[in-house]
Design goal:
Elements (H helix, E strand, L loop, with lengths): L1 H9 L17 H6 L6 E10 L3 E4 L7 E4 L6 E2 L4 E5 L1 H59 L4 H23 L10 H56 L2 H18 E3 L4 E6 L13 E4 L4 E8 H4 L7 E5 L7 E13 L16 E8 L4 H5 L5 E7 L3
Antiparallel strand pairs: 1-9, 1-13, 2-8, 3-5, 4-7, 5-6, 7-8, 9-12, 10-11, 10-13, 11-12
Helix pairs in contact: 3-5, 3-6, 4-5
Length: about 375
């Protein structure tokens, strides 16, 4: 039967580990809680800042040039904690890129100003060409109108042709034929030809003026398109945008080379000293010590007995007296306990869930001096 009892006990991996105490009321955590062994759960916990301990890192391959804080010093978010050797070089690269960007912008602005001026000239030329075409059309219409140049030339041609016809008719008349000589007919024919030539020249001149205006409009439109293309291609060819991206990248590198405090808090540990190379390990660690908690590993068989708001007492040989708190949260995640039991005979084949104890503000300063200390915790069982 004894062997059977032992085997049965071994098949209960989630049973609470049994620690033997001569007098459970002598357990400091229970005493501080003012409870008996049946009125509380005993477990192991660890003191931590509520928001954890934040490590300040630097990329490998650099070197710590200076450190401007020490352990225990309070800092504000954004405060300079130290400086890497690469910071000066990266700041120099950033300054060069910024200067290049200014020069590129100035050059681009000048080129754009020239291109814009050419564009305005092209627009003016186009307007002038269109005005020239309009004036040519109006002049042609006026010339064709009654009393206009072309109308008068038409009349001159008609009059000369009529006179020539009359003279030819008269030259065939025996009575008047002697008055019309061949020389007179030739002169009148010459007058007709001259009138026709003048009319043709006037019409050709009008057409030429109109065609010249049309060509001027086309040329001005081409100049305008060329000016617009020059502006767009000039914008596309500007190195300003690529320099902006380069500046952003260099700024990120400069920021990465600065050791700045990510939070308001206290420097709790310094792991490197000036002159040492960076390896990707923390240079220092910062925490907000105004809000302290205790993470407790409670056996899963007892986890359901823990209630939010339950009183808890925390003790350790390193703590003068005890720390008081209340259960803030109970985790749903179950796993193997990570904190070793102070009892070397305690069982380890069980599962636990995390319970977070909010330490009272009055006790937080004492807890802040013992970050990551493993402690004994007694949690009251609420009725």
């Amino acid at each position: 039967m004894g062997a059977l009892a032992i085997a049965s006990a071994g098949c209960q991996p989630d049973a609470a580990p049994v620690d033997r105490f001569e007098d459970v009321t002598a357990v400091p955590a229970l005493v501080a809680l003012g409870a008996s062994g049946d009125e509380a759960i005993l477990a192991q916990g660890q003191l931590e800042p509520s928001n954890g301990v934040i490590s300040v890192l630097a990329p490998p391959g650099d070197r710590l040039e200076s450190l401007e804080v020490s352990a225990g010093q309070k800092v504000q978010a954004g405060d300079t904690l130290g400086r890497l050797v690469s910071q000066a070089a990266r700041e120099g690269e950033l300054a060069v890129a910024v200067a290049q960007r200014k020069e590129a912008q100035a050059t681009a602005d000048a080129e754009q100003a020239v291109a814009q001026a050419k564009l305005e000239v092209a627009r003016t030329q186009l307007e002038q060409a269109r005005l020239q075409v309009q004036q040519a059309k109006e002049k042609f219409e006026l010339a064709q109108a009654s009393g206009g140049t072309l109308d008068l030339l038409d009349q001159q041609v008609a009059l000369a042709e009529s006179k020539l016809a009359q003279m030819r008719t008269a030259s065939n008349d025996p009575a008047a034929g002697r008055l019309i000589t061949s020389s007179t007919l030739d002169q009148q024919q010459l007058a007709v030809d001259q009138a026709r030539s003048d009319l043709a020249a006037a019409r050709a001149e009008a057409r030429a003026a109109s065609q010249a205006g049309d060509l001027a409009v086309k040329a001005a439109e081409q100049e305008l398109r060329a000016a617009e293309v020059a502006i767009e291609s000039g914008k596309a060819a500007m190195p300003v945008e690529s320099l902006d991206e380069q500046i952003k990248l260099l700024q990120l590198q400069v920021d990465a080379s600065k050791l700045l405090s990510p939070i308001d808090g206290t420097v709790v540990a310094v792991h490197m000293h000036p002159g040492q190379p960076t390896t990707g390990q923390p240079i220092l660690q910062i925490a907000d010590l105004s809000d302290m908690i205790c993470r407790v590993e409670v056996n899963v068989s007892q986890l359901s007995k823990v209630k939010t708001g339950a009183r808890a007492s925390i003790t350790s040989a390193a703590i003068d007296g005890s720390l008081q708190g209340t259960v803030r949260s109970i985790s749903r995640l179950i796993g193997s306990p990570q904190l070793p039991s102070p009892n070397p005979m305690a069982r380890v084949d069980y599962r636990s869930g995390e319970v977070v104890i909010q330490i009272e503000p009055d006790d937080a300063p004492r807890a802040a001096d013992l970050i990551h200390l493993q402690v004994d915790v007694a949690i009251a069982l609420e009725d």
